[in-house]
């Protein structure tokens, strides 16, 4: 009976693993396909993305935000600056509006200290991440040496266990931060849809919402890949990227 239970558990975990990997793979392909499609649709607002950013900046931020140039596909927000590529600035597509509105959503979060708290946590995580692999290796080696009686003293067992537990705690902290990031991205998208709802039609808004939802799915994929990184079956992900 126990044999069948163990087999059932292994098969169940295998199925869950395959489903998780499928979701992770699908999410990025799905986002890229939607991005290419919506990037071909001009907005009915009739203005460039840069004009839209300036309008939102004036209405919601009293003109406090600065606009800077960045490389293509590197549009982002940070420290009161909305960085946009020349292509994004001069585009009038729904995709550009959706992406930029999401970054403006982050700017709105920044006014409530949500982003700064998260960035502090992630900075702490990056420091802790430097110790993850050394602690894991040292802990595993010490436990192995103790198990084979190469080092028989009890404190080697304790030290090895402490190393593995510490590395596991760091791993859980990384998972927590990625889950926290998903919540932050969702709120930024909600703010983005609020901005876009002032200028777009209902159909256009649905297209933008669909794109933002598919973008958020890629963050879930990153979380899944991080959780399954120990299986060596997923692309390597930085714990605190």
Polypeptide structure, described:
With 241 residues, the protein is mainly alpha-helical. It has a domain at 93-231. 71% of the residues lie in helices and 5% in strands. The protein has helices at 2-38, 49-60, 86-90, 94-110, 114-129, 132-147, 154-196, 202-227; strands spanning 66-69, 76-78, 81-84. Strands 1-3-2 form a 3-stranded mixed β-sheet. The mean pLDDT is 86.
Task: Set down the secondary structure blueprint.
Elements lengths: L1 H37 L10 H12 L5 E4 L6 E3 L2 E4 L1 H5 L3 H17 L3 H16 L2 H16 L6 H43 L5 H26 L14
Parallel strand pairs: 1-3
Antiparallel strand pairs: 2-3
Helix pairs in contact: 1-8, 2-4, 4-7, 4-8, 5-7, 6-7, 7-8
Mean pLDDT: 86
Radius of gyration, taken over Cα atoms and rounded to an integer in Å: 23 Å
Described by the principal axes of the CA atoms, the overall outline is elongated
Low-confidence stretches: none
Strand element count:
3
Query: Distance between the terminal alpha carbons, to the nearest Å?
Result: 45 Å
What's the arrangement of strands in the largest beta sheet? 1-3-2
- Give me the secondary-structure category: mainly alpha
| SS strand fraction | under 5%
Please give the share of residues in helix. over 70%
- Element-level helix/strand string: HHEEEHHHHHH
Largest sheet: 3 strands, mixed
The helix count comes to 8
